[in-house]
Amino acid sequence: MKKFILIVSLAASFQAFSQTKCDIQNHYGDFIEIKKGNHKGKDYLNPELITVDAKYCFADYVNKYPLYMYYFLTSFCPSYTQDKDNLINIKDSLALQSAFITVLQEDSLFSTIMQELTEKVFDKSVPKDTITMNTLLGIAAKYFYVLKISEEGHYVGKVCSGINGIAETEAVRKPFIEAFASTAILKHYYSKEYNMYNELVHAIKDLYKINLGIDNNERLLRARGALFMQMFYNQKLRDMLLYEYERQKEYLPFVLSDI
Fold this sequence. Notes:
The chain is of the alpha+beta class. The protein has 2 domains: 24-126, no CATH class; 130-256, no CATH class. The protein is 53% helix and 13% strand. The strands form 3 sheets. It has a two-stranded antiparallel ribbon with strand order 1-2. The chain has a two-stranded parallel sheet with strand order 3-6. Strand 4 (144-149) and strand 5 form a beta hairpin. Helix 10 (196-207) packs across helix 11. The chain is globular, with a radius of gyration of 22 Å.
């Protein structure tokens, strides 16, 4: 009996150890490439996601949802943003790639996100975060943004993963919710069933129903808040997010508690 218990214990220990061995941080170079481009005589950096070999535990995630990884890279890797000038001066492409991967591996915020992601998606012993639909909608609504007021006094709306209301309203960032919400919205920007572009247009038209201010700066801030609230209660946005959640939940590090 003692021998049997020992064997089972060892097997359980090995299984638990193997579950946590999904190492993404030492394999950035296997799915992220940095390339240099030129536009009108000015060099720029262009990170690209490449297909990952199926032998890696994170292959399905990266291959199916490359825009998530791109969002984490561009929004939650401050070292990359800060080191762009140094990287762009590297002439040799291999040296540039090596330096770029080093930047990613040494960025504490990016590495923390990658570690949490792999643990909560691939290690079944680590519980996923639990969020409400209101939390999800509270983030998603802020990608619908009044960018400016034109010289003619018109609201100029935009949906963008880079220019939005997240940073100016969220004291504590939620990288996984942000990545999911922004990519889902952009995926369905012109889709037949959900068409987020039409929802944006309708919501902005509604802003004209009430005077939001005489001073343009104050008017702009009120318009942004009003648009956020309209989209928070937008049924199509809610339905679309739920649809995408059901399709992707196996690869999301969170669960919705009130769907």
